[in-house]
């Protein structure tokens, strides 16, 4: 004698299928909806990065609405930088590439006006983490 | 190398004195504020008493003579006496009491930066710098003050009081820093659109460090060895920077803009606007009008990216 009668078994199975499908849908929806995740920089601290961006006065050339006084007009605005596909229009905007760019821009794009400012790799790492938080063009 | 104060230290504050005069001036501020506060509270208390419903009638004659005449006369005379006594202890102004071998420092205010000249009678050294006054700790220095265009005023709150700088007239400020450090100062007399961006730093150094600094500043500009700054020196001429700027040993006697002989050794550029490094130098050269609208320096025109970097590297190298 089976533990559950046939009609009851069918009901349980239907309930299980429905529940699983709902969970799957939720998981999928969570993937599409909400805030897209910013690129992660291992070992990079966005808060420190903002301090460094302020101290090095990147604002002398770049507009960064999040940094007080950063209203430069020499280079591109960095608002929304975290969403850009390319750094300086030619370099894929990936963490490792961005760190290398910040440390020595002319090495990656000869002819660029952006100088190497003597950043350490770690400083560039923090700055990269911060730059990826800038996701809203203003 | 002297460093800039960190964000937790006061940038520029009367309430954090670092010199004898500033100490006295700070004390004035506190005592006068305190006395004013006490008088205000006493008046408010009397007002409160007078508003009581069943207040006893007063003797007006007594209150007018006592509270209106005797008390203010006593209080104000006391404060005046105290402040006169303390004022007499300020460092005497004037160049007369300086030791004979002290370097003579003159500061000329311009729209909107400070030209600083040192003349060392002992060695005959003559140096020109900008937006930065380095002084030895614990020694009284006299700054001869003048202005080239309009009236300005020199104020370094942590060290001394204000002194106006008037075209065609030499005034002076005697000051002494008792602690090594970097003290920000600014123009304290409205002098045009960029008055707010007319700052300077007084850097108080240990006497040996000061001597080494003076020695270095007296040297002509070094010739760069690396290719990029060497190229930058050519760009300097291509962009006709020499029409306004002097680099001793390279091009002389143009004083419309700041002397750049050792610009890379200064804490900031643009009169307290930007920290000195190749990035800020490049940004400043490319577009000074965006950073300090109205400044007399025009933007470099038609300068390609690499040349801009080279010029910034050259100026950074001038230490």
TrEMBL record, chain A:
Q: What is this protein called?
A: C-type cytochrome
| Keyword field | Heme, Iron, Metal-binding, Signal
Keyword Metal-binding among UniProt keywords: yes
Domain Cytochrome c: residue ranges: 44-135
Where does the chain cross the membrane? none
Concerning SUPFAM superfamilies, the annotation shows: Cytochrome c
Which Pfam families does the UniProt record give? Cytochrom_C
Does this entry carry the keyword Signal?
yes
Entries under InterPro entries matching the protein: Cyt_c-like_dom, Cyt_c-like_dom_sf
- Signal peptide residue numbers: 1-30
């Amino acid at each position: 004698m089976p533990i559950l009668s046939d009609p009851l078994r069918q009901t349980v199975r239907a309930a299980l299928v429905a529940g699983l499908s709902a969970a799957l849908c939720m998981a999928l929806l969570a993937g599409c909806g909400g805030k897209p995740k910013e690129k992660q920089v291992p070992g990079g601290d966005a808060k420190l990065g903002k301090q460094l961006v302020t101290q090095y006065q990147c604002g002398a050339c770049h507009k960064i609405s999040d940094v007080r006084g950063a209203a430069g007009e020499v280079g591109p605005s960095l608002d929304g930088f975290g969403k850009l596909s390319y750094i300086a229009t030619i370099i894929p905007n990936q963490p490792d590439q961005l760190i290398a760019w910040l440390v020595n821009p002319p090495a990656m794009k000869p002819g660029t006006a952006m100088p190497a400012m003597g950043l350490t790799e770690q400083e560039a790492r923090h700055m990269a983490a911060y730059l990826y938080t800038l996701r809203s063009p203003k | 190398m002297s460093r800039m104060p960190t964000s937790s230290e006061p940038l520029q504050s009367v309430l954090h004195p670092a010199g004898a005069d500033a100490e006295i001036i700070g004390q004035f501020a506190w005592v006068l504020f305190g006395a004013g506060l006490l008088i205000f509270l006493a008046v408010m208390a009397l007002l409160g008493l007078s508003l009581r419903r069943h207040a006893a009638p007063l003797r007006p004659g007594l209150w007018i003579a006592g509270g209106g005449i005797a008390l203010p006369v006593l209080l104000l005379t006391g404060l005046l006496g105290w402040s006169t006594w303390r004022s007499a202890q300020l460092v005497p102004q004037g160049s007369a009491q300086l030791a004979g071998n002290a370097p003579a420092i003159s500061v000329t205010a311009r729209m909107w930066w400070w030209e600083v000249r040192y003349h060392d009678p002992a060695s005959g050294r003559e140096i020109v710098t900008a937006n930065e006054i380095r002084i030895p700790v614990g020694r009284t220095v006299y700054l001869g003050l003048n202005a080239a265009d309009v009236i300005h005023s020199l104020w370094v709150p942590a060290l001394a009081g204000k002194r106006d700088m008037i075209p065609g007239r030499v005034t002076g400020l005697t000051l002494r820093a008792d602690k090594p450090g970097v003290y920000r100062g600014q123009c304290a007399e409205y002098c045009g659109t960029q008055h707010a961006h007319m700052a300077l730093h007084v850097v108080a150094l240990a006497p040996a460090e000061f001597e080494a600094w003076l020695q270095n500043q007296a040297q002509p500009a070094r010739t760069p060895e690396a290719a990029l700054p060497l190229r930058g020196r050519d760009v300097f001429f291509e962009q006709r920077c020499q029409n306004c700027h002097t680099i001793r040993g390279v091009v002389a006697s143009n004083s419309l803009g700041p002397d750049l002989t050792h610009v890379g050794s200064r804490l900031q550029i643009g009169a307290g606007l930007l920290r000195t490094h190749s990035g800020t130098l490049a940004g400043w050269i490319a577009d000074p009008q965006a950073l300090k609208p109205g400044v007399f320096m025009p933007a470099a025109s038609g300068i390609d990216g690499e040349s801009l970097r080279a010029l910034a590297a050259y100026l950074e190298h001038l230490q």
